[in-house]
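Example record

One chain of 341 residues, shown exactly as stored in the release files.
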Amino acid sequence: MGVTPPGPPRVLALDAGNSKTDVAVVGLDGTLCGRARGEGFRPSAGTADGAERAVAGLAATVRAALADAGVRAAPGTAVRHVTACLAGADLPREERELSAAVAAAGWAHGSAVVNDTFAVLRAGLPDDGSVRHGVAVVCGAGINCVGRTADGRTHRFPALGRASGDWGGGIGLAEEALWHAARAADGRGEATALARALPAHFGCATTGELIEALHFGAIAADRRLELVPLVFALAADGDAVAGALVDRQADEIVAMARVSLARLSLLAEPAPVFLGGGVVAARHPRLLSRVASGLAGVASHAVPTVLDAPPVLGAALLALDAVRAPHPAHATLRSALTPDP
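Predicted structure tokens for this chain:
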């Protein structure tokens, strides 16, 4: 049997965050041809083949998206460009290693790798170029921020966790909630409903039982993210400790946006601040209200906006930009990937 012809040229977009990977195949006219979702992307920093192994782990999701688009030929013959917005592409060395690995994968004729925060920024910016500057803060499993000016200058944080001064995101909130629950249960800390709600969520009778289950692996570490909605629910119910965690998360989002705006000399002019990631997308009123008031206090011209569109839209728009797709293609793609209000 012959190989199915590759059909018209396409671009490939990857948004690979800590918790999940989304892949989209898009025609040069903006038509969404195929999609697939896979597991999170967490390259091993400092290892000789960490980038290669991590990118190889994306291959199954890429193949699934291409199959959904009807691509049966070798990907490189049907895909003009791939833009991969990847978690872990934080430092220049990591960008170089991941870029080489994506190029070597042979998914397209051309390729580009950027940090996944750029996907959120591009998804928020208008396609007509009327606004080319702004800041994006991503608060999902982790937290990160990027800003850029109209002339292309950027500001970023290392985003390596506590070692680089970061706090929050789903993982950080869950860890902090567990810390407070443990101290409340054994008397070292302030009383909080977290001490009852967290173990109950996992079917444990006490906080001590939960600690033991986590320690011995009876509860998988990645399930700690399930605790984040409990933190927000208890904060809404008036729990002081949970409320303080939500407020601290909001303040951290504001701090990152403020610094990026200041470093790029954008504090004194209208500048969009796009908010993405699962923690923000849940639209908890206390969190968003404090972010809005905090930004108003330090950057009165900043305009915060929670993005409803998936970050893979930003990756796909970057891919269309790279091949200079006709302008209507961007609107077509946005219509396909932006959920109805």
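Notes: The chain has a mean pLDDT of 93.
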